[in-house]
């Protein structure tokens, strides 16, 4: 499944990635690519945790 991701750079220079359709699914990284990789992992974990509930 595909999800829309938002990516913003915070005041400390860290990239924050959010998946608005999955409440609380947020990650970050030092680079854009790292943040995107991390949010993909977070989405996978989020999805698996919802299946087991």
Folded structure, characterized:
This protein has 53 residues and is of the alpha+beta class. It has one domain (6-51). Helix content is 38%, strand content 23%. A three-stranded antiparallel beta sheet has the order 1-2-3, covered by helices on one side. The model has no long low-confidence stretch (mean pLDDT 95).
Total of helices:
1
In whole angstroms, how far apart are the ends?
19 Å
What count of domains describes the coordinates? 1
Main beta-sheet annotation: 3 strands, antiparallel
Radius of gyration: 11 Å
| Overall 3D form | elongated
Q: What is the structural class?
A: alpha+beta
Please give the order of strands in the largest beta sheet: 1-2-3
Mean of residue pLDDT?
95
Helical content (DSSP H or I, runs of 4+) = 25-40%
The residue ranges in which pLDDT falls below 50 over 5 or more consecutive positions are none
Portion in beta strands: 15-25%
Helix/strand order: EEEH
Number of strands: 3
Give descriptors for this structure:
38% helix; 3-stranded antiparallel sheet; alpha+beta
Secondary structure elements and their pairing?
Layout: E1 6-9, E2 15-18, E3 26-29, H1 32-51
Antiparallel strand pairs: 1-2, 2-3
What is the gist of this entry?
With 53 residues, the chain is of the alpha+beta class. It is 38% helix and 23% strand.
């Amino acid at each position: 499944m595909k999800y829309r991701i938002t990516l913003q750079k915070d005041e400390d220079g860290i990239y924050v990635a959010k998946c608005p359709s999955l409440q609380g699914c947020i990650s970050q990284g030092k680079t854009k690519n790292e943040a995107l990789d991390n949010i993909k992992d977070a989405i996978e974990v989020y999805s698996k945790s919802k299946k087991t509930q």
